[in-house]
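#struct-help
A.M.: can someone run this one for me? Single chain, 411 residues.
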Amino acid sequence: MPEQSSEDKRSILMLGGSRQQVVAIETAKRLGYRTVVCDYLPDNPGQYHADRFYLESTTDQEAMLRIAREENVDGVLAYASDPAAPTAAYVAEALSLPTNPLAAVQTLSVKHLFRRHLAQNGFPCPKSIPVPSDVDPERLLGLSSDLEFPVVVKPTDSSGSKGISILDAPDPERFRAAVEHAREFSRNGTLLMEEYITSTFPRVIGGDVFVVGGTVRFWGLMSCLRDQSLGGLVPVGERYPSGLSDAQMHAVREQIQRLVDSLGIRFGEFNVEMIVGRGGVPYFLELGARAGGNMIPVQLSDISGIDLVEANVRCAMGDYSMDVSFDSADAAVATYVPHASVDGVFQGLDIDPELRPYLYRTVMYVDEGARVERFDGANKALGILFLRFDSVAQLEDAMGRIGKLVRPRIA
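D.P.: on it. C-alpha cells below:
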C-alpha cells in the first residue's frame, strides 16, 4: 500500500516541545499520526521532530484552540506538562475530542483548588490558606497564627517544586523571602500557605498511575529521592520498589482510586506525590494531570514492559485498546538526576566505577562547557541516569551514597 500523505493522516496537537516531550512526538509519528507541536521557546528541540510547528505559548488557551481548528486535529496531548494540561482539556472539550473533564484537570492543576476538593470530599489534607501573590508578607505572617508550624509557602500553579519554602517559625524576614520566592513562579496570582505534613515514611511516594475507563490499571508507585543538602524539596530521582509496607500500599492505592472516582477521571497517565503521615494515613501532595517528569514513564516502561508513552498518545487520540494492566514487578531500579550545587560551568560527570555496572542508560541535557545553575527546580537538571540493581539491598546501599558515587564537576 502507498504511504499516507501528511494531509491524509490523523493529526495530534502536542503542547510542548521540550527535551522530555520529544519522546512523545517521536512516538506519535511512529504510530502514523501527523504531529502539530506548539512551544513558546524558540530553541525547543521538539520543533525539529514535528510535522508542523507553532511558536506559541501552550498556556494561551484561545491560541491553542485556534491552531487546533486550523489544523483539524483529532486529539490533544500535554505530555509531562503541568501548565499545558488545562489547555489540552480546554481545547479537547471545546472540539468534542477525547479528554478528561476540564473542571477535573483544573482542580488537579491548581493547588488551592485541589486542597479545597480534598477537604470537601473527605480526604486527609493539611489546613491551608490561599492568598493573592501581592499579599503583604506581614499579613501572611499574621494569618499563619491559624496554622501549626512548620508551614509551607508556595505558588498554586507552578511545577517541578519551584517557588516552595518551608518555614519552621513566624520569622518576618523569612516570610518576606518566602513570598518573594513564590511570586517568581506564580502565573495565576495566587499563593498557598499550608501546614507541613510530618511523614512517618522516609520518602515521598512518587511515580505514575494510568487510568482506563475510570479505573487505575497501571500501578507505577515508586518513592522519590531528594538531596537534603539542597533543602530536600526537589526530586533527584525515583526508586522502585517504593519500600511501602503492604498496609501502606493498600491505603495509598485506595486513596488514589477514590480521588479518580471523585473527579470523574476517564483515562490517562497521572503523576503521584503523596506522604504517609501519622497513623499510616496517606496525604496527597499532588496528583498531576499528566505523565511524570524526569522521564518517569520511560523508567516505568522499563520496569513493566508496557510503553506508557504510546499509551498516552493512543488515549489522546481516542484509542483505548492498549492493555496497560500492571500491578508489580520483581525489580530493583532507580533513576538519578545529576545536578549542580552551585552556579558555574559544567566540566563533566564523574561516575564511580562501583556504580557503572548498574548504569544502563544515560541521558544528558547539558554539554561540557555549558553554564549551569544551582539545582532548585527540575528545569535545572543536568541529565538522568537509569540504574538497575541485582537486589533491593544493593539498590538501597548505592542510592544511600549516590551523591558520592555521582559527582558533577562545576567550575
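A.M.: thanks! The first strand starts at residue 11 and ends at 15.
D.P.: also worth noting: The mean pLDDT is 94.
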